[in-house]
Amino acid sequence: MSTTTRPVTQTAEVEVNAAASAEAPPGPAVAGTEFSTTGTDPMGSFADQSVVTEATPGRIFEFVTEAVLTPKGGGRPIEWTIVHRYEIAPRPGGGSRVVYGLQITRISHLPGLLRVLRTPLAPLAMKASAALAQRGLRNLIAIAEERSQP
Fold first, then answer.
1. Residue (of 64, 61, 22) closest to 39 by Cα position
2. Sign of the CA dihedral 121, 42, 25, 58?
3. In this structure, are residues 68 and 77 in contact, taking their beta carbons and an 8 Å threshold?
4. Of 36, 63, 69, 150, which sits 20 to 30 A from 27 (CA to CA)?
5. What is the number of other CB atoms lying within 10 angstroms of the CB of residue 6?
6. What is the pLDDT along the chain (150 residues), one digit of tens a residue?
7. 3-state class of 42 per DSSP?
8. Integer angstrom CA distances of residue 37 from 49, 88, 138
9. CA–CA separation, 111 vs 76, rounded Å?
């Protein structure tokens, strides 16, 4: 198994309002809380196991994910380790501003178009993936909002 030689980092600022599901213990997430998610994206299906590394209510939510992506067209599954970080701040007039950053710290191999991550075009490829990051962020916030309701 090979790994990338340098971390890949992405940051996005998004508006949020969508829903999804995940398996997580009841109650607020704190450092050490483990949860799992499954789903699909344009590349295939994924199964993730995550652990919360930092949780400051209303300010910061960070977790590390061990992910396995099974490509749509078949082939070897891709294994990733990704650090996700959400920084939350109040917006003037109500609501919140959420800034999401990710860092890919390990990836087993880069099939197809993902090979661009090892080229000078990597920053452009990461910007192109912002829609997927936005969807994941929306899903997490929707789950948090749903679980915060009495």
1. 22
2. positive
3. yes
4. 69
5. 11
6. 333 333 333 333 333 322 345 788 888 889 999 998 888 877 788 889 999 999 999 899 999 999 998 988 888 899 989 999 999 898 898 888 888 888 889 988 876 666 666 667 666 666 666 666 677 777 767 776 776 676
7. coil
8. 7, 22, 14
9. 9
85 forms bridges with which residues in the sheet?
62, 101
Helix (H) or strand (E) holding 141: helix 130-148
CA–CA dist 97, 109 (Å, integer): 34
- Domain assignment present for 88: yes
* 55 inside domain: yes
Assigned domain for 3 exists: no
Which tokens belong to 118? 């090892």
How many domains, in total, are found in the chain? 1
Residue type, 149: Q
Residue 1 is assigned to a structural domain of this protein: no
| Domain around 105 | 8-148
